[in-house]
Amino acid sequence: DDYIAKPFSPRELVARVRTILRRSQRVSVAANSKENKPAAQEKRAQAAPESGANEHAASAFALDAERRLIRYHGRALDLSRYEYGLLAVLVQRPGRVFTRDELLELVWDDPGASFDRTVDAHVKTLRAKLRAVDPEDDPIRTLRGIGYALREEERR
After folding, report:
1. Angle, vertex CA 42, rays to CA 37 and CA 47, nearest 5
2. CA-to-CA distance for 132 and 32, rounded, in angstroms?
3. Could you tell me the residue ranges of all domains in the chain?
4. Which of 22, 70, 76, 153 lies most in the core, judged by the most C-beta atoms within 10 Å?
5. 107 with 82: CB under 8 angstroms?
6. d(CA 13, CA 43)
7. For 35-150, CATH number?
8. H or E segment to which residue 106 belongs
9. pLDDT of 151 higher than 70
10. From CA 57, how far away is CA 155, in angstroms rounded?
11. Which tens digits make up the pLDDT trace of 60-91?
């Protein structure tokens, strides 16, 4: 279900093969596991905040899980389903680094059907929406080759 147009770089070929292998491993694990849903719920619980608080005083974010609403500097954000899921995971655990694969598992219903670069694309649009509220602040930290985290400290 993927192809590479000629000419291509060997790096791109290796990256795409790794992505397909990762995806096929996730699909085979999901097919072999009869308790797939409880495992996903357990992962979500592990990513949830330890304090159980929905209001995050150490950040500029306010999470209202019942309404599926996130406020940034007091302004409600108009987020897609996946943008909300990504930001909610990050807001609930500021400072914790999530790999792309972890974010796929936590936010997407069928992570095996998505590429890890899907996360990057959604983070990009999420950053644009956050920049529209506060152009001086970039609360999402990128760890190259690893993943993403929400900055713990509030900008002064």
Report:
1. 125
2. 44
3. 35-150
4. 70
5. yes
6. 31
7. 1.10.10.10
8. helix 100-107
9. yes
10. 13
11. 889 998 999 999 999 999 999 999 999 999 99
Tens digit of each residue's pLDDT (9 = 90 or more) over 89-109: 999 999 999 998 898 888 887
Give CA separation, 111 vs 5, 38, 76, 124, in Å. Answer: 25, 15, 28, 19
H helix or E strand, kind and range, residue 130: helix 116-133
Euclidean distance between CA atoms 106 and 100, whole angstroms: 10
DSSP string, 4-59: -PSS--HHHHHHHHHHHHHHHHHHHHHHH-TTHHHHHHHHHHHHS-SS--SB-TTS
Which amino acid would we find at residue 98?
F
